[in-house]
Specification:
The longest helix is centred in the N-terminal third of the chain and has 17 residues, at 116-132. The protein has 2 domains: 1-50 and 141-387, Roll (C8orf32 fold); 57-132, Cytochrome Bc1 Complex, Chain D, domain 2 (Orthogonal Bundle). Helix content is 34%, strand content 16%. By secondary structure, the chain is an alpha+beta fold. The radius of gyration is 22 Å and the shape is globular.
């Protein structure tokens, strides 16, 4: 997406992702653009699924630690996220000398950047921390819980593992290899347009391909027609409270996002309650945020529609709802994450119905629970730096 929305997106991520959830996640840069790329090897399949510690908190409150351990924690956080998420060692149940073999093994990995001096600092911190803080490998970060529960509600499984590292868009592009049931035609499952392309797909193997996400200006499409005015008093009252006297469509959308961020508590809710219920009870997950946002945007005179697809959180993708608004073209917006525009880790499914929230049917997707998504990274043998 162009610079038109970049300031809003950055500011809102600080409020919604850090302020609301109070979670500090260390992200590893993934490189893209090399001439030779590969999806992570099938040998990594088990490793992708085993490490539930990746779902735990990705930071440690060291405010009460001695000063030397605070500095050691900062060093650990910088060095220990190249091969895996920072959450993995933070939530590991290793203790004392068990850390010695782990840290030394990590330091011997190609490109780890961990020197013998680093090993000493990191090892000292991990031993100190494991004696000071209770750990559990199956702890789940509260920020991830709604994503896990919504994904299970929509697909029957908790998540779609896709990387050994935190997933992040870099250089305006993200590539994801996809393999599904032999009966699944990816060309009919994923949206395919100027912002999201299905490549390496053939009619001979319609269940395999790659999705390429790229930054574009607002996507072209059929211009939205007249927006039906709502007569719901609670909804109109919420819209009036959110936008005040603002008349510019983009500003109205930003104000509605701010209102939702401040007024609705983020927590999982089973099913899809009506907007009136959400506005009255003031809580919900991405489904409720999206439904409320779409109706508020329409009531504010801005065409909007719901969207369904996958979004990346940490090392996996989750089925997720977000929206699009008409601002001289369709612009993705994630009300739950507070993103305008929604980032490129949002992979749209081809749900043609006007209400993607109501039209999803997991039973119509062959082998959904076996669908494989893998972030594509440069081939190590090509000489490209993996990060």
């Amino acid at each position: 997406m162009g610079s038109r929305f970049s300031a809003r997106s950055a500011a809102t991520r600080r409020v919604s992702t850090v302020g609301r959830f109070a979670v500090a996640v260390s992200l590893l840069t993934l490189g893209f653009g090399g001439p030779v790329a590969r999806a992570q090897d099938a040998a990594d399949e088990e490793e992708l699924r085993v490490f539930d510690a990746d779902l735990g908190p990705a930071w440690i409150d060291v405010s009460a630690y001695p000063e030397d351990q605070k500095q050691a924690y900062a060093h650990f956080a910088r060095k220990c996220c190249k091969c895996h998420t920072l959450a993995r060692p933070i939530n590991s149940t290793l203790r004392g000398d068990e850390w010695d073999a782990y840290v030394n093994r990590m330091s011997r990995k190609s490109g780890s950047g961990i020197s013998p001096a680093d090993v000493k600092v990191i090892l000292g911190f991990l031993i100190f921390d494991s004696e000071r803080r209770a750990r559990t490998a199956n702890a789940v970060d509260p920020e991830l819980l709604p994503f896990l529960r919504v994904n299970r509600e929509l697909s029957g499984i908790g998540r779609f593992p896709a990387s050994l590292k935190d997933i992040r868009v870099e250089n305006g592009s993200l590539r994801v290899a996809v393999e599904g049931d032999r009966r699944l035609d990816l060309s009919r499952f994923f949206a395919n347009d100027d912002g999201q392309k299905l490549v390496k797909w053939t009619r001979r193997a319609p269940n395999r391909g790659e999705i390429v996400m790229e930054e574009v200006e607002p996507r072209e499409g059929e211009e939205a027609g007249r927006v039906d005015a709502s007569s719901d008093e609670d909804l109109l009252r919420a819209v009036a409270e959110a936008i005040g006297s603002e008349s510019e469509p983009e500003e109205r959308i930003e104000l509605i996002l701010d209102w939702l961020d401040e007024m609705i508590v983020r927590e999982y809710r089973e099913g899809t309650p009506e907007t009136a219920v959400v506005l009255r009870e003031r809580s919900g997950d991405a489904t409720e945020f999206t439904r409320a946002f779409v109706e508020m945007a329409r009531a504010a005179g801005v065409p909007a529609r719901s969207r369904l697809g996958f979004v990346a959180r940490r090392t996996a993708f989750y089925l997720h709802h977000w929206a699009e608004v008409w601002l001289d073209g369709w612009v993705p917006v994630d009300p739950y994450l507070g993103q305008l525009p929604a980032d490129l880790t949002h992979i749209r499914l081809d749900v043609s119905e006007k209400d993607a929230l109501a039209s999803w049917d997991a039973g119509s997707v062959p082998g959904l629970d076996r669908l494989k998504l893998r972030v594509v990274v440069p081939d190590v043998e090509s000489g490209e730096d993996e990060g």
